[in-house]
Amino acid sequence: MIARLIFTTLALTAMDTGLPVQITGSTQKNSEIADSNSAQESGPVKSHAPIPKVPNAIADDLTKSPPELVSSQDTYSAEFSAMVELFPSYAPRAVPITGAMRIVGSDTMGPLLANIGISYQVVYPNAKINIEQGGSSKGISALKGGGCDMASVSRDLSTKEIDEISKATGKQVFVVPIARGAACVYVNADNPIVGFTKEQCNGLVSITHAMTEAPIMRWNELDSSSPLGSTFPIIYVPRMTSGTLQLFIDWCMPGEQITTISRFTESGPSSVVNACCAYQTAVGISGYANRQPRARCIALSNGAGQPFVTPTVTTICDGTYPLARTLNLVFVATDAQHIPEATIEFLRFTLSEDGQDLAAETGNIPMDANALPGFLGTPVKGIWR
Amino acid sequence: MIPRPGPKAKSCAIALLSALLIVGCASGSGKSKPGEAARILRDQRITRAQLEEASNAFADRYFTLMLSASERVMRDNKDINQCRIMNGLRLLGVSSMYDIATSPDTITQLVDQLVVVTLQNYFWVDSGRAQKIWGPRAQFLVENLRRAREDIWTIASRVFTDAQLEELDLSIATWWSRRGGTEFVAYVRFSEVSSVKGEALIERVRDGGGLLEPLDRATEQVENANLALDRSFFWAKRLPLFANWQIEALWYDMLIMPDTQRLLASVDTMSKAIEIVPERMKMLNGTITGAQDTARDLVDRIFHRVLVVLIVALSGVFIIMKWRASRKEAKS
Questions:
Q1: Is A211 helix (H, G, I), strand (E, B) or coil?
Q2: Most trustworthy range by pLDDT among A58-62, A190-194, B13-17
Q3: CA-CA distance, A115 to A121, in Å (whole number)?
Q4: Which residues of A256-278 are buried (b: 16+ CB within 10 A; e: fewer)?
Q5: How far is B54 from chain A (nearest CA, A)?
Q6: Would you say the ipTM is above 0.85?
Q7: Chain B contact for A86, CB < 8 A?
Q8: Helix (H) and strand (E) counts for chain A?
Q9: Which of A307, A368, B133, B219 has the most crowded Cβ, counting Cβ within 10 A?
Q10: pTM to 2 decimal places
Q11: 3-state secondary structure of B182
Q12: Among candidate residues B213, B239, B216, B224, the one with its CA nearest the CA of residue B98
């Protein structure tokens, strides 16, 4: 009996200690370890899946352009093709054009004219087209002083300027629009700001800020929710002779001086956009043709309460974008009947399918094919002859 | 309160100051000669030695910019391909820059550096290619490439007139608009970008048509011969700085090969397995300690129960013995 009592006591004690439970617990842990091991083992199985081939030459990576990089701004759209096709083709003259022609002026128009010049010289190998930049104002001055055959001007000429050229040269002034574009305000692609009003542009860029009570010095003064907070907007502009800058000044700060605080003058319009591509706090003023994937042309509004308009082909062509403009070639002649042959031919080439194709390729918008200047003559069966 | 000078007092002071300045200038320089401004301008012209120095300094600066940018991109970056492309970019860029800095002609050095850096900006910064490849890590590289562009154009503005700079800018922009996006930019040179027109520009600058001090051809050749040794030393001293990048390039090229990738995956698995061992040991140790504690606890409890049972049993035995004794006594 005593033995039975002792056995029962021992059995109860063993049950209270929960030994089997502990054993079960450790078993569970071990199973977890086993699971985790199997999980670890299953990793490499996945990594042994076929590895996509990667080109092993550095050159391939450094030169290939990922397809996603081609932005909508860079594509030569079907819209452009339709516009270009409306222009007459260019047939070279039987008697080739020879001699040099000097075109001075707009930085924005530089690449366009240089490309047209190269193609023109393929048609007429003995013709030489010299392009010089320096800004629209420089072109106008050169034309006045007889220092060039044509001035490239990336804005509308004022009546005063036309009168001055006419007076200085004693000849009639001809202004021929060869492409369309706009002066744009650029910011970094990562900057979420939607747009600027005319007043904001004035407060930001003008030293006297006639349209605002105080100068605008920080990003959160332009947009309270700007992630750039109280950092300074750094302004990048082309040279003062630039037609693009002049158009911007005439729009938002007529008669005022441009600020000297946090402002940098760049060597060319592409450098302005490059700064906006690189620096997140940058604001740049440059031409529509200079747009790049890492910089964004922001919308502009003619004033508080007015709609914001982004520069697009549509808004530039219909003139709703505040800083839409035409890119012009300006020259002088006694009258329309006495324009030099070389000038006529160069303009015909520029306003042909080939010339307008180059305009589109260099980031500009082709002209309206129904508004060709009368002194160029009439195309015969869609060909300039 | 001190009264502020009125407009009249101010204008008097300005007039007096102007008069003193005029007298001072006149007494200092004597009679003003025609062409004085041109002489001052000529005196301020940069010399070839200064330009050579600026070009070398720029190459070093470019090296520093690329080194710091690549460190940002490659540090703790487990993407071999990203590291490989970055290494390739810095290796080609820096070797190209030193190659230019040690080339024979000083003006060509400058325009070549200008072309490479400007094209690199078009290619990597403007297009967004850098962000596409390296994501947010690219920002530092992008800013450094832009700084390099600012620096080299500033140096160029000491040599070329505004018009000449615009000509250079137009040449590069035109070339890029015709060939953009697909060129191997670190090794593009000005001669390729500008052809005959560019040669003419360099000749004009060489002959004093820019801001560079003109030099007759014979003197220039002697100077270049003297500089050749300096350039060799310059190159030789810099070479070890980025020689290891070449080794890294080979290493990354090897790493990126599909077979190496598979091997790496296996090694990775193995290393992960090795990493697990101490962890498992630790866990096992914990389990053993737990089991020991449990057993100790169990023994304690058993001992306690056995003791209780023994006491109960002994008490029972004692009670029984007591009962038997009392019964015997009752019987007796």
A1: coil
A2: A190-194
A3: 10
A4: bebbeeebeebbbbbbbbbbbbb
A5: 19
A6: no
A7: no
A8: 14, 14
A9: B133
A10: 0.71
A11: coil
A12: B239
